[in-house]
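lol ok so funny story. i was supposed to be doing the assay writeup but got distracted and ended up predicting the structure for this chain instead. priorities right. anyway since i did it might as well share w the group, maybe its usefull for someone
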Amino acid sequence: MNLRVGIGYDVHPFVAGRPLVLGGAAVPSPRGLAGHSDADALAHAVADALLGALALGDLGTHFPDTDPAYAGASSLALLARVRDLVRERGYHVANVDATIVTEEPKLAPHVAAMRAGLAGALGLAVDEVSVKATRHEKLGAFGRGEGLAAMAVVLVQQGTGESA
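and the output, tada:
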């Protein structure tokens, strides 16, 4: 059994006039995240973790922010394409564990939708995807509400993931 682990991390500043999208879920907020795509930092962290697990570079290598084709792109669609890269190399995603760091908005009411969005893009059961939220306790840029960070750890396993 060949297992590989990847870690992903993404940060975006808050800006007015954009929706806040995390794990594909629209989160009510007066500010969204700045970025070339939909700026879904959670999906980006998971995608980078998957790419890292198989030493395939990072999200910007595959979907550069200089390419107009990705302007406003759904990060869940990009994540599904990364999932396909994982499958093309003979692996499947076994599980995801992710954490979002932000002072606001409160994310607990939206975690189930985030888990479902990520699970759908990855072809996983919801119970194979964990999403947690924490605060920075008013410390630093995140504590001042200037932005949001997301971290993810993934396990990929060789094979299709289907029972024999």
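Strands lie at 3-16, 20-22, 25-27, 31-33, 91-101, 129-134, 147-158. The mean pLDDT is 94.
back to the writeup now i swear
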